[in-house]
Write a structure and sequence with these properties.
- The chain has 2 helices and no strands.
- The chain is mainly α.
- It has a domain of about 30 residues.
- The chain is rod-shaped, with a radius of gyration of 25 Å.
- It starts with 7 loop residues before the first helix and ends with a helix.
Length: about 70
């Protein structure tokens, strides 16, 4: 009889990793969701910082040219 590919111990470890990444029945608690939230926050803050920088530089140019 051939050996099973995965023992129960390996299956349990894979299941635990999956629960950590995806969330145990609640997708918002999974690591993938948390990383996506962090990435979205960083993108939004990046845009805000870019707009603030452009506004400050634009105001400085306007003041210096007048």
């Amino acid at each position: 009889m051939p050996e099973p590919m995965f023992t129960q111990d390996i299956k349990d470890k894979i299941n635990d990793i999956h629960k950590t990444l995806v969330g145990n029945g609640d997708p918002k608690r999974g690591m993938i969701s948390r990383l996506a939230t962090i990435e979205t926050t960083l993108v939004i803050h990046g845009w805000m910082l870019g707009l603030l920088t452009a506004t400050i530089i634009g105001a400085a140019i306007k003041v210096l040219w007048n």
